[in-house]
Each structure stands twice: as structure tokens, then as C-alpha cells.
Amino acid sequence: DADVTQTPRNRITKTGKRIMLECSQTKGHDRMYWYRQDPGLGLRLIYYSFDVKDINKGEISDGYSVSRQAQAKFSLSLESAIPNQTALYFCATSDLSAGDTGELFFGEGSRLTVL
Amino acid sequence: AQRVTQPEKLLSVFKGAPVELKCNYSYSGSPELFWYVQYSRQRLQLLLRHISRESIKGFTADLNKGETSFHLKKPFAQEEDSAMYYCALSRDSSASKIIFGSGTRLSIRP
């Protein structure tokens, strides 16, 4: 089955460390997204990309950067992690060819803990 | 500003009882509304969208523009409905502009 895969699934790190979360998809979708989930706050959009040359900030992009290495790969980086970036991070895709009806396809999530 | 509000963090009902998960939104345009669900140890996934006017797993949701609401309803709850539910709004029918509510955890008691 076509899938959205995130690595690592769990990561514990220390304040100030650089962290990269990776996302790859075999769905053939053009659009990819990074969300952050915090209890009581729901999901908030960090960055999104419509294709390899198109990167856009979401509502909470400060402290994060992304790289769209290929249509199938979209990485999220924390250059200098801080404790309030402890959260569950989700990668998602959507299908432009289907008219981008608003359906997102999510990965399983990457739980990041910053000590 | 666009906003999606789910006033209940936790909703607990008995099996067989009716369920209503509330969702209110603020948006000046014509929104597309969705319900996403996350079952235990599964991925977040689309449950239903208002433009489809469909019933999925017995759930329905009607967009009420006058009350700016999109409540999710099911007449008879089942134990397998226990999950986290998110209401979401798309500002221009595009997934790139989706705003999520804070979520409601539904617990079905046997």
C-alpha cells in the first residue's frame, strides 16, 4: 500500500542539539506538510510544500526549517532544539491531481522530547 | 481570524447512547468542513467532509452556516467509536489551508 513514513518514530534529545525528522511517501502526491500536535492545542501547521521548488511557512514556523529533497521526501529540522518543541510531529500529504479536496494523508507521527 | 472551536476535551457516553461532538467555526468566507479521527494506535484519517453529505460508520455532520457549526452525530454509540476526533476547516478547499480544532476525545463506556 502507498504510504507516508516518518523517521525516527521516537527521539529524545537535549537542548541546543540539531534534530532532523524525515518523511517519505510512496503515494505520488505533490503536496507535503509538517504539523505539530500538542495536547489541548490540536494540530498546527509548521511548513508545507507544493513541489520541490515551493516551500511555504505555516502558522508556527519559527525555530524550524524544512527541505524538500525530492517529490517523495520532506524533512523537518530543528537547528537548536528547545524544551517547548517537545511534541508529536506529523507529516502529511495531499493529492493535487485529485483536485486537492482537502483530504490529508498522515504518517504515524514522530514523538520528540527535548530535555 | 479563522478559528475552529471544539468545546469538549473529553466526552464520555454509554454504548448505545447518542453521540454529538460539537464544532463551531469562525470564518468570513465559505468554508469546507471536515472531521478527522484518530483511533488508538492508528493514523489520523479523514472521517467525513461536509461537501460529500455522506454517512461514515454511522456518523453524520451537517453544516449550519447560521450557527457556524458542524457537529458530528451518531444515534447509537459503539465501543469502537472511542477515539480522538478533530474538526477542521479549509479556507479555500485546499489542504494547504486547513485549520484544526483542539480535538475531542470520545470514550464509549460498555
Can you lay out the helices and strands and say which pair or pack?
The complex is a heterodimer of chains A (115) and B (110).
Chain A lengths: L3 E4 L2 E4 L5 E7 L5 E8 L3 E10 L2 E4 L7 E6 L2 E6 L8 E8 L10 E2 L3 E5 L1
Parallel strand pairs in A: 2-11
Antiparallel strand pairs in A: 1-3, 3-8, 4-5, 4-9, 5-6, 7-8, 9-10, 9-11
Chain B lengths: L2 E3 L4 E5 L4 E3 L2 E3 L5 E7 L6 E5 L10 E2 L10 E3 L8 E8 L7 E3 L3 E6 L1
Parallel strand pairs in B: 2-11
Antiparallel strand pairs in B: 1-4, 3-8, 5-6, 5-9, 7-8, 9-10, 9-11
Model description:
The complex is a heterodimer of chains A (115) and B (110). Chain A has 115 residues and is mostly beta strands. Chain A is built from no helices and 11 strands. In chain A, the strands form 2 sheets. In chain A, strands 2, 4, 5, 6, 9, 10 and 11 form a 7-stranded mixed beta sheet that branches. Chain A has a 4-stranded antiparallel beta sheet with strand order 1-3-8-7, with no helix packed on it. In chain A, strand 7 and strand 8 (73-78) form a beta hairpin. Chain A is globular and about 40 Å long. Chain B has 110 residues and is mostly beta strands. In chain B, 0% of the residues lie in helices and 44% in strands. Chain B contains no helices and 11 strands. Chain B has strands spanning 3-5, 10-14, 19-21, 24-26, 32-38, 45-49, 60-61, 72-74, 83-90, 98-100, 104-109. In chain B, strands 2, 5, 6, 9, 10 and 11 form a 6-stranded mixed beta sheet that branches. A 3-stranded antiparallel beta sheet of chain B has the order 3-8-7, with no helix packed on it. In chain B, a hairpin with a 7-residue loop joins strand 9 (83-90) and strand 10. The radius of gyration of chain B is 13 Å and the shape is globular. The mean pLDDT of chain B is 90.
